[in-house]
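User: Hey, my collaborator sent me this sequence without any context and asked if I could get a structure. I don't really work with proteins. Can you help?
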Amino acid sequence: MQDNKGLQLRRCVKWQAEFSIFLLFVLSTVTGQIRYSIPEEMRPGLFVGDVAKDLGLDVKRLVSGRARLVIDDSRQYVELNRNKGHLVVKERIDREQLCGQKSPCSFGLEILLENPLEFFSITIEIQDINDHAPVFSKKEIILEIGESTPIGTIFLLDTATDPDVGLNSLQSYSLKPTDNFALKQHSRSDGSKYAEMVLQSVLDREKQSEHSLILTAIDGGDPPRSGTVKIVIAVLDANDNAPIFAETMYKASVAENAVKGMLIIKVSASDADEGYNGNVTYSFTHIGEDATHLFQINAATGDITLTGNLDYETVQQYELNLQAKDPWGLTGASKLVIDVVDVNDNSPVITMTSFSGKIQEDSPPGTVVALISVQDLDSGKNGQVRLSLEQNSPFTIKQSPRKYYTLVTDAPLDREKVSSFNLTLVALDEGTPSLFSKRTISLDITDINDNAPAFSQREYKTYILENNSPGVSLLALQAADPDAGQNARIAYYLIDTDVNGSPVSSYFSVNADNGIVHAVRSFDYEQIKVFKIHVRAQDGGSPPLGSNASVIINVQDQNDNAPQVLYPVQSGASVVAEIVPRSADVGYLVTKVVAVDVDSGQNAWLSYKLQKATDRALFEVGLQNGEIRTVRQVTDKDALKQRLTVVVEDNGQPSRSATVNVNVAVADSFPEMLSEFTDFTHKEYNNNLTFYLVLALAA
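Assistant: No problem. I've predicted the 3D structure and written it out in structure-token form, which is a compact way to encode the shape of the chain:
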């Protein structure tokens, strides 16, 4: 038997080299279909098909797209060699285990590619090899047949089973010897074969009380396989009539959710014999393992009841052989076909075949977010499913081939408005009542650099006292960027400009991380009173985005300059004297002390005081204007030579001051004054520079 199996494998491997490949390209941006046909029992590693060539794909695309197989079944019979683009056997495939008696036998899978998302459907058909011989459920069949059994009586024989299909399945029976019995072969509606033994010559118990026959079941493989069972016939004494069923075939329909103990149908058979010979008992014959625990027949009444749980998704129809038997062994045969009716007892199952959980906010409408598989084991309308989204969102569901759906974008996305979505998928079948299932997925919107940093205001103002320390902070600028991550990381820069011919960086600096503006040097109000600089906030995106803001820095004055006396001019070479005639009245204007302070504000407000005088009772100084006037009438007793010291003081904190000496001569004429004060020089208004300074100050 092993040799036959090896021969079958070798022949099928040879056949595999000649198998045809049917390639169907569906004109779609994401799908394609190919079909391969291979024999069962191939060794792992054997070649199935060149998917790269058959799909028209470059092998590099398989590698870059991280090609992988998506298989509905829990077992993976084949695997993909991405480097070669070949589909090879991964695990030995037993067609009978995979599909049972179903033919053709195939399974589907998808090849999934990423970046962009593409998937291709592949169907692999498994061809049967003759690796099973027909087998009878019993080693020996014992029949009791009355000697008066008429010629032509039919005896239903045990059916052999062969899990192979097609020509490799059970094809015929043979019976030896055929002295008293002939063999008739029949086919059921599903194509299976069964045999009946027909009495073709009268039995005589007195001549031979027991007959021994060999029933052989033969399949159609090359070479064929066979199985045998021994039939022992015990010849009984006369019983002329066999039971006859009321119908040659019974039919019944049962819902798959029917409860145990339910009466399915009542069968009946009659026997023309009288008395004991006419008693009939009912039984199943040749019942399959799948039906053994599901149905029971009452031997006395013929009531057939349900004893197990039906499942339409597993088996849709049962075919039971019925037998009515009298006490002497005569039998009648009939058949019961039970159709299982589907009910909507399976909810749809949602599977995320491919889903990364994130998508960029600049993805255009129609971008595929996820590939979703929805399966419902029910049939007809009960298995027809609609997939939808429970809430309104910028996403929609589109249907693809083979019960697949794609989740795609339906509107523009904006992470700054909504950074993530919790989407609830709802799968609803069309059964009555309908069943549904839900699955919630989380989808994050990843950021792109679509927002520039923005300052809270376009222009900032700040103040700093002159004579500041280098490095002192002036103010902190702050910009906001609604993007995330590196796209929201802001750096601050000083825009290059010139201040009085020098780069602005020689006056100010900006901390790139926190936007704090620092003074690089000490400022002098008397030199520059106002600065206007420009700062740029730039994010870390690619390409980076930024915005500018202006900063106006006002330098505030400090009292760092003392008043300067412009008049009278103090000269070491000569002394200027003011002349007061002896006839001067009270309030006579002797002269005016003129001073300036380069500071500003109250630091430049000047006051004048008389600090010392030869005769304090004769002169006074105007506090605000610096005018020196006589307080009383000049008399002959007043000294000719008068010396006044005037203090000029500003209003700063602390205040600064300057002093000036004023010489006054009390005389009626210039010669008189010269006779006493030879070291004094009278002022020359027209030629002295001081005159012009006073005039300019007055203007």
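In plain terms: The two ends are 133 Å apart (CA to CA). You can pass these tokens on to your collaborator as they are.
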